[in-house]
Amino acid sequence: MTMIFMLTAISLVLAIGFLSAFLWAVKSGQFEDDYTPSVRMLFEENIKKEEVKSKIKIENKNQKQ
């Protein structure tokens, strides 16, 4: 019977610890921006392609001169 009480106490301490860590993360702003990480890869790809295209255009202009 004492083992059940001990395991219950340990599980409550762990649950309170996880709850406090979650609340700390929410208060510190860890979950504020949930849109950008999901599309960051797509935007970086487009930016890189545009940079490459602009470099090619500049090189083509320099070769024509």
Q: What is the distance, rounded to the nearest whole angstrom, between the alpha carbons of the first and last residues?
A: 90 Å
The 3D shape can be described as rod-shaped
**Tally of extended strands?**
0
The number of helical elements comes to 2
Structural class comes to mainly alpha
Q: Order of helices and strands, N to C?
A: HH
* Sheet with the most strands, sense and barrel status: none
What is the number of domains?
2
Radius of gyration: 27 Å
Mean pLDDT: 80
| Residue share in β-strands | under 5%
Measured as a percent range, the helix fraction is: over 70%
Uncertain segments of ≥5 residues (pLDDT<50)?
none
Structural description of this entry:
There is one protein chain. Helices cover 85% and strands 0% of the residues. The N and C termini lie far apart (90 Å). The protein has two helices and no strands. It is mostly helical and 65 residues long. It has two domains: 1-31; 33-65. The radius of gyration is 27 Å and the shape is rod-shaped.
Q: What's the layout of helices and strands?
A:
Elements: H1 2-27, H2 36-64
Summarize this entry quickly.
The protein is mostly helical.
Name the features.
65 residues, mainly alpha, 2 domains, 85% helix, 0% strand
